Amino acid sequence: MRKLRFAILSFAHVHSWSYARVLRELENVEFVAIFDDDEARLKRASEQYGVEKTYTDFRKLLEKEELDAVIITSENAKHKDMAVAAAEHGVHILCEKPIATTLRDADDMLTYANRYNVKFQTAFVMRYHGVTVKVKELLENGEIGDIRVITTTNHGKYPGGWFGEPELAGGGAIMDHTVHTADLMRWYTKSEADTVYAMKAKNIRPQLRAEDAASMLIRFKNGVLGSIDCSWSRPDTWPIWGDVYMGIFGTEGYIVVDAFRSCIDLVTDKQPLKWIYFGTDCDLEMIKDFIRVIVEDRVPRASGWDGRQALEIALAAYKSIERDEPVKLPLKY
Q1: pLDDT at residue 216 above 90?
Q2: pLDDT tens digits, residue range 22-51?
Q3: What stretches of 165-297 show up as alpha helix (H) in DSSP?
Q4: Whole domain around residue 108: which residue ranges?
């Protein structure tokens, strides 16, 4: 089987560097080109991953290179233009979350993917973690009966840079950290959100223009109640980026999910606390599955629609904060 030809469109997002590592590790992939509108970042990525073909215009990259797929890891607000252009060139798309900053942009992206018959996968890496996949299996087997409540946290450190610029990120911690656990709740409950009620706290970092501390309640159409603490609540010196924690209450049992517990905490005389993770490589598993989706003409486990629906929950949270009341879904433009 021939190797699939990949390009990465922007190294603006912190996850892009790990995705590039995976492309280099996979034997059935050829990492052929990089786009970035930041020339210094483009040079660094090119040198680090040994990719000679570099572009500061993603449209020129798509015109000149024969590609099978792109990974879009630009600032959130720039996803739409890249996804539309990729679709027009018949190139499959793996898009970082959140897939857009507005529902209109998200819907346009999915429309173009469907029109040009390309795969659109959302980078919901937590659907590819061994722990969360096992939980899905337990729930499907009815191990805890019917789900009643899911409590979740997706804490993290402030990523810095454009993540604190609402014009590029679409918001702050809500936009960045709601979508992962909101998506897992949709996946586990097989239901859509009906009502969202959110509150934001006084910022931990008062200099930020975006929120960094918030929580929300979600009622799903099947009656399940969910909660999300999506705060950038970890200090910069924290040895790990954050967490993905879930408590799933059922009529016949309870499941606790601590997705990144597979780690070693190391302290020596020469260095402070260091966190060494040895669990599932989610990025590797996600991209391997994306390749299977392309080669075997399958539906992605985390589709563009899944990305759109998780985005809607985050946007509903902002509306709830603005109105200081619960917001019903679906949202209107």
Answers
A1: yes
A2: 999 999 999 999 999 999 999 999 999 999
A3: 166-169, 173-177, 179-189, 282-295
A4: 4-118
Coil, helix or strand at residue 189: helix
Q: Given this model, what pLDDT does residue 275 score?
A: 75
User: Confidence class of residue 136 from pLDDT cuts 50, 70 and 90?
Assistant: very high
Q: What is the pLDDT of residue 127?
A: 97
pLDDT tens-digit series, residues 245-271: 999 999 999 999 998 887 777 778 888
The amino acid that residue 183 corresponds to is: D
Query: What's the token pair of residue 54?
Result: 């570099």
| Residue 193, strand partner residues | 220
Whether the upstream peptide bond of residue 98 has omega within 30° of 0, thus cis, is yes
Beta bridge partners of 225: 149, 219
Domain final position from 79, 95, 118: 118
**In terms of DSSP H, where are the helices of the chain?**
16-25, 39-49, 58-64, 79-88, 103-115, 130-140, 166-169, 173-177, 179-189, 282-295, 304-323
Mark whether 18 and 113 lie in a shared domain.
yes
Token pair, residue 129, equals 């973690």
Q: Are residues 242 and 145 part of one domain? A: yes
Residue 301 lies in a domain: no
- Same-domain status, 211 and 244: yes
